[in-house]
Amino acid sequence: MAPPHSTGPVHAALDAAVRGVAGLLSVDEVLQVIVDQVRPVVGARYAALGIVDPAGRIERFITSGIDDATRKAIGPLPEGRGLLGLIIRENRSFRIPDIGADPRGSGFPPNHPPMTSFLGVPITVKGVSLGRLYLTDKFGAPEFSEEDQALVETFALHAGIAMENARLHEQLKRLAVIDERDRISKDLHDGIIQNMYAVSLSLEDVPDLMEDDPDDAVERVERAIDSIHLSIQDIRNFIFGLRPELLEGTSLVGGLAALIEEYRHNTIIDLELRIPDDIPEPTDEVTSQLLAIVSESLSNVVRHSRASRAFVELTSDAHGGLALVVADNGIGLDPAGVVRLGHQGLANTRERAAQIGAAITIDSETGSGTRVTIRVPHPTTDKESR
Question: What is the pTM of this model?
Fold first, then answer.
C-alpha cells in the first residue's frame, strides 16, 4: 500500500473531493466531503473542519472519524478556546506532538475521545479566512510531519475554493427563489387576484338588489359563481405549472400529452395536440425546457388570451431539428407588450429557449391570436450521446 503522503492517493483524494463537491448543493455537504477525503490522505484518526463567523466564533464544525453517538455525547460546538482558538487568532498552521502536554491547550470536554498529535491548517480564499482544518492522532508516527502539513495546506487551498463555490451556489439559489416569488406574485396579481377582486366588487350591491331588482341580483350571483369557478381552474393550472416534478422523467411526447390533458380538465378552451408518429426523442435537458415552455405558454393562453381554441404542435425536419408551436385564437398581444415581455411569462420562455440553444418567434396582432414558435436545431438524442 502506498504511504499516506504519496502523490497518487493525494491526487485521487483531491479528484474525489472536487468531483463530489461538483455534484453537491449545500455547504454542509461540501464540508463533509472535504473532511472525509483529507483524513486518510495524511493517515489521521480524526479530522474536523470548523467555520468561523466574523467575530471569530465557530459556527459550523464538521467531523470525520467520530461516530454520531460520540459526537452527541460531546455536546455543543467547541467555543474556539485553546488550540482551536490559537489557529483562529493567528491564522497559520500548527503541528503539535501532544495536545495534552501543550500549555496552550484547554483540555477536552467530557465524553471527548483522547487525542495526542495535532495538525491545524487555516482555509483562506483571496486573503479571506473561511475556516480551519484540524487533524489528530497520526497513524504510525508520534506526530504529523512537515510533508503532512504541506499536503493538508494544498488540500485546504482546494477546500477553500470549493467552499466559496458552494456558498455562491446557495446565494444564487436564494436569489432564484426571490426572483421566482416575485414572478409568482406578479402573475397572481395580474390574473387571479384581480379577477377575485372584481367578483367581490360585483357582489357588493347584491343585498340592496335583492329588494330593488332581484333578477339582476340573481344574474350577478350567477356570474360571480362562474368567475369563481374559472379562478379555481386558473389556480389549478397555475399550481400545475409550478410543479415540474409532475413531468419529471417523462418523454417529450408523453409530457406534452399530460400537459394537454391537465389543462383540458381545468379550462373551457378547446385544446388540441398535434404530433406525428416519427418525432425523435431529444435529450432530457431539451425535453425539460420544452415542457416548461409549453406549460408557461398554456398558462398564458388560459389566463390572458380569452381564446376559445388553442393547439400545441410538434414537428421535426429532415436533420432532426424540432419545431414546437403553441397557438391560440384569442385577443392577441399588444406589440408593445411583446417587446416589454411583461407579466405574461414571455421572458421566462425566452430564457428557457436560450438555455437549449433554441430560437423563438412570437407572432401576434391584437384581435387575431398569438403564435409562439420554438425551434431546436439538431437535437442529440439520449442514445446517441451515450
Answer: 0.44
